[in-house]
């Protein structure tokens, strides 16, 4: 049976990180979760907490923690300004611009094509990549995030093609369906089945 950390043991990890010079709360929690996962992995091999925690610390050297503390942007994978507020504001602005372009098109207002093209490019090649960058933290599932980005890109292109040209792009639609189903199966259905099996095993023990 998996040995999980106690609250006291988790607090020890937090204390270690603070003592190592990591001061940002969000970063401390993310690093603590990362170390906790490694520690629990070694606990499952039969080691006690002290030994397991030491092995986890060896995996994430103190030198690396200090570098992370001094350069949190590099650890997070995105610049400091790229927070939720910025992304929400940027998304609202670009989507409003895109919708405005569509309204111009339906009202036959000149220059609507320019507005639509610019806003569509900004969503495809600025907003969606920035969202991917924001989500690619050290503990993130990289495959999940990249696959999700490809799905979002294809889905947006499918919707945009329909709204602009009143027709469905078979290429974008098929890729949206394929990547959407892969994401659903790999990261939702399979983990759900695995969790149910683990629950049954625990009940049988």
Note down, in words, how this protein is organized:
This protein has two domains: about 5-75; about 85-205, no CATH class. It is elongated and about 70 Å long. It contains nine helices and no strands. By secondary structure, the protein is an all-alpha fold. Helix 2 crosses helix 3 (about 50-60). The model is unreliable at about 70-75 (pLDDT under 50). It has helices spanning about 5-20, 25-45, 50-60, 60-70, 70-75, 85-105, 110-135, 140-165, 170-205. Helix content is about 80%, strand content about 0%. The N and C termini lie close together (about 10 Å).
State the gist of this model.
This protein is mainly α. 80% of the residues lie in helices and 0% in strands. The termini are close together.
How many domains, as an integer? 2
Mean pLDDT: 83
Helix fraction, binned, reads: over 70%
Alpha-carbon Rg, integer: 23 Å
The topology string of helices and strands comes to HHHHHHHHH
- Spans with pLDDT under 50 lasting ≥5 residues? 70-75
Q: Which geometry do the CA atoms define?
A: elongated
Can you count the beta strands?
Answer: 0
In DSSP terms (H or I, runs of 4 or more residues), the helix count works out at 9
Largest sheet: none
**Structural class, from secondary structure content?**
mainly alpha
Note the topology.
Blueprint: H1 7-19, H2 25-43, H3 49-59, H4 62-70, H5 72-76, H6 84-106, H7 112-135, H8 142-165, H9 170-204
Helix pairs in contact: 1-2, 2-3, 6-7, 7-8, 8-9
List the defining traits of the structure above.
205 residues, 2 domains
């Amino acid at each position: 049976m998996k040995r999980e950390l106690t609250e006291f043991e988790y607090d020890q990890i937090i204390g270690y990180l603070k003592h190592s010079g990591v001061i940002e709360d969000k970063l401390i929690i993310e690093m603590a979760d990362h170390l906790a996962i490694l520690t629990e992995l070694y606990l499952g091999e039969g080691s006690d907490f002290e030994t397991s925690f030491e092995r986890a610390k060896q995996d994430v050297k103190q030198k690396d923690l200090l570098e992370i503390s001094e350069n949190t942007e590099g650890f997070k994978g995105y610049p400091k300004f790229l927070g939720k507020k910025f992304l929400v504001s940027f998304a609202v602005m670009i989507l409003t611009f895109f919708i405005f372009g569509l309204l111009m098109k339906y009202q036959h207002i000149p220059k609507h094509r320019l507005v639509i093209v610019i806003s569509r490019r900004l969503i495809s090649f600025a907003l969606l990549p920035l969202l991917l960058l924001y989500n690619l933290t050290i503990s993130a599932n990289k495959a999940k995030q990249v696959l999700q980005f490809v799905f979002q890109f294809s889905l947006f292109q499918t919707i945009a093609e329909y709204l602009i040209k009143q027709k469905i792009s078979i290429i974008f639609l098929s890729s949206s369906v394929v990547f959407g189903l892969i994401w659903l199966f790999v990261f939702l259905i399979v983990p759900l089945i695995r969790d149910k099996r683990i629950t049954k095993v625990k009940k049988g023990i």
